[in-house]
Amino acid sequence: MAVTVTIPTALRQYAGGNASVTLAAGSVGQILAALTEQHPQLGKHLYNEQGALRSFVNIYVGDEDIRHLQGIETPVPDGETVSIIPAIAGGAGSIHSW
Amino acid sequence: MVLSSLSNEEIRRYSRHLILPEFGMEGQRKLKQGSVLLIGTGGLGSPLALYLAAAGVGHIGLVDFDIVDESNLQRQIIHGTSTLGIRKTESAKMRLRDLNPHIDIATYETHISSENAFDLMRPYDVIVDGTDNFPTRYLTNDACVMLGKPNVYGSIFRFEGQATVFSPKHGGPCYRCLYPEPPPPGLVPSCAEGGVLGVLPGVIGTIQATEAIKLLTGIGEPLIGRLLLYDALALRFRELKLRRNPDCPVCGDHPTVTELIDYQQFCGISPEESYRDSTIEITPREAAEWLQSDHPPFLLDVREANEWDICHLPGAVRISVNELAERMNELDSAVEMLVYCRSGVRSARAVDLLRQAGFRKVKNLAGGILRWADEVDPSVPKY
């Protein structure tokens, strides 16, 4: 009974460099809790000070945004993939932007 | 609408399009009639502009204020060594002129802003977002929604890219439906901080060019309501569903944002924050004197290991800004400290972190290694 959580490049440094993590099936909330328990540094990038998911980090179960499912209560069946998709802004690479 | 005709010369040039049954003369004439505004002539804008010009898009607008820098050429293939130091819009225009003399190219040497966005976008059929920062992405989105124009979106980071077409007019979502709010400054690294594989914008920009051509000609199925994800390292494409949010403040059923706002402020970049405190920041020359004095400061480099390998200042100790919170116990708050990075942005963040943790004697090297190389030691490479 396992699900795969894919970690985007921008957050891999907070997840021990892993591109994906295998965790026990459950709800999205349970899976993310298990993930941040393994990798505590990920926590502040996924949750805000109030403990809610940050609005620039989207969570998908399969190809569907959990906001259109049951949010963090969304059940994730065995073998399914949970994707963390943060906003990225790169494109021009202006020397003045940084 | 009467479509413009093609000259014999143009027919020869576009023959490989014309013999595509789905494209034909009609598709080519629609391209000739069509117009695309490219916001940014950088990594994404380079392949975009080249392919759109080669394909025969009749009117191409280029918005960029930047000049061509050596560090651009690893990925910004529209520019070249011969155009270093000149405006990107001019450099791009010369290349596009050479590629296709049959099209109009308009250049706008400016930052797109809430004041000029409508005027810039209004004459164009399709807007392509190839910028590199959140304020401009939200501005481009909101202005496109308000003008009812499709926004061909692409974004890249390190080895990963995203692309989609935002077009509420076609029933699809907008950028704010996907990401209602921007990340606070500093939490998501930029390409200049995080790096980017040079060919990555080639892949994503070419996908954006494909979508712009499909929108102009009306062929195929546009990438609306779908977010395409590309992972260059795994060489994998994935597609996620995007849905319009009926409560979206811009494109929703009851919009609350009906005119352009201050996007710097929206993204948490306040004038006070971008102002650097002169008591905390010192210039490279002051730093050099301080380091050579009898009481030199502890020198802290907050960059990543691969950047340290490129160059570093003698005597420095490295702790990445990303590890600083966990490794603060390795530092002594009693000693004077000078913090530096590549350009002074990450080190300013590190100084903030340290000060909040009670380190009172910390200063930031203004302009980082880049300015150090300009003003103190030209032998240090700029990257």
Topology:
The complex is a heterodimer of chains A (98) and B (383).
Chain A: E1 2-6, H1 9-12, E2 20-24, E3 26-27, H2 28-38, H3 43-46, E4 57-61, E5 64-65, E6 75-76, E7 81-86
Chain B: H1 8-13, H2 15-18, H3 24-33, E1 35-39, H4 45-55, E2 59-63, H5 88-99, E3 104-108, H6 117-121, E4 126-129, H7 134-147, E5 151-157, E6 160-166, H8 175-178, H9 191-194, H10 200-217, E7 226-231, E8 236-241, H11 263-266, H12 271-274, E9 281-282, H13 284-292, E10 298-301, H14 305-310, E11 317-318, H15 324-327, E12 337-340, H16 345-356, E13 362-365, H17 368-375
Parallel strand pairs in B: 1-2, 1-4, 2-3, 4-5, 9-13, 10-11, 10-12, 12-13
Antiparallel strand pairs in B: 5-6, 6-7, 7-8
Helix pairs in contact in B: 4-5, 4-10
Percentage of residues assigned to helices of chain B: 25-40%
Distance between the termini of chain A: 44 Å
Describe the biggest sheet of chain B?
Answer: 8 strands, mixed
Figure out the total of helices of chain B. 17
Multimerization status: heterodimer
Count of extended strands of chain A: 7
Structural class of chain A: alpha+beta
Instruction: Tell me the fraction of residues in β-strands of chain A, as a range.
Output: 25-35%
Mean pLDDT reading of chain B: 92
